[in-house]
Sequence to fold (472 residues):
Amino acid sequence: MRVALLSPPFAKIYGRFRSLYKRGFLNPPLGFAYLAGSLEKAGHEVMIVDGEGEGLEYDEILKRVQAFEPKLIGFTATSPDFGITVELAKYIRPSFPKTPFVIGGTHTAIFQKDVLLDNREFDFGVIGDGEIALNELLERIGESSAYGEVEGLIWRRGEEVIQNSFRPAERDLDLYPFPARHLLRNDLYIRNVPYKGYLRTAAFMSSRGCPFNCIYCAVKNIPNGTMVRFRSPENVVEELDLIVRRFGIPHVAFNDDCLTFRRNKVLALCEEIRRRGLKFTWEGLSRADKIDRELLRQMKAAGFVRISIGIESGNQPILDILKKNETLEQIAEGIRYAHEEGIVTRGSVIIGSPYETQKEVENTFQFITSLKELDQVVINIMQPYPGTLVREMVMRGEGGTRLLERDLSSLRRFGNASMEVNDLSADLLVKLQREGMRRFYFRPAKVIRNLVINHPVALAFDGISALRSILG
Fold:
């Protein structure tokens, strides 16, 4: 059976930060690639359309889908881009009046059957890992009496919406086929890699889930979201071998919520990379309290070049409110360790948290500018995403918060604030975001440092995009 998996052009939600987002953070639709790998293994024919990556308008996506003639069309969405996904579904629905539309992703996992109740464009929803559920659905298409057998499925029975029991999480991720990267335009996904410039980059996952309780994350309200599941180091390197040698992709961005959560697995991964003689660079996300000198040294020896660490705040009481369970001392120490081991450091902070005032934002700006070993920073505006504790706090008005905008498309971290807090108005938060970026980067030491670690061409393009975004 032919299956089309569609991702709309969504980065317009980032406003004037769109070009900066696309050059530094755009990932291929990795979840779709996983689904496609599983579907192809079962004998189905799959097409993936990445509207954002390929720069496609709705009419161009429609033409591609019409030429493919699918028997099922799949969508995925987070909450901020859900409205755009619905727009695309509505646009192509008249051309496919009888073709089943199925939607998955974090928004569906949080709102569950309400997604179908509120949006008649979709016939099915899938909660949790879709690799098995989607195959089981395809086996039963047209047999509505059998839909109840598919765990994790939401479906329609006349005017009624039925939600089946959740599917138990598959703990052994090695059982899932590798993502079908041959269905992606891999040349479209690039990163500015330290000392090398723009390189084709593969998005990658070696684990799923996150056990931490940060108030700005919805993972605890996603079924099985707090259960951390791992792939074996051998399975991970087998796919890395495929990426590097078959697809010729020289850089890999690990999207694990906390790459170094299991120290022994990362050490085994590094050893296996070296044993196979794989030559590529990689980067990933972590927490400062989950790294140490020896671990970083081994990662560096295996090609690791940049670590992104969640700083979030430079004020300890605010850090505690965010439930980070870290100290400012730990954060500074972790960044210093990485720098001393020759790894480029990138930090992320959030402004506009509950209980925060201009004073605490200033604490954060002073903290990040005091970290001599911090090479790059991303400043985000707090957004109350559905399923998060911070949204519950904002709905109660806790900590001086005031919700301004209920439209989910407003929940973008750059250039927009959908809530205010104490003396931090929406306009002021946007202004402070730009000011913080200027204060961090427009210093002689940081200008020189970024001239050293960035390829001149990449630095020029990124610099222009950054200036447009920061200066408006």
Summary: Residues 189-471 form a domain with the TIM Barrel fold (CATH 3.20.20.70). The mean pLDDT is 94.
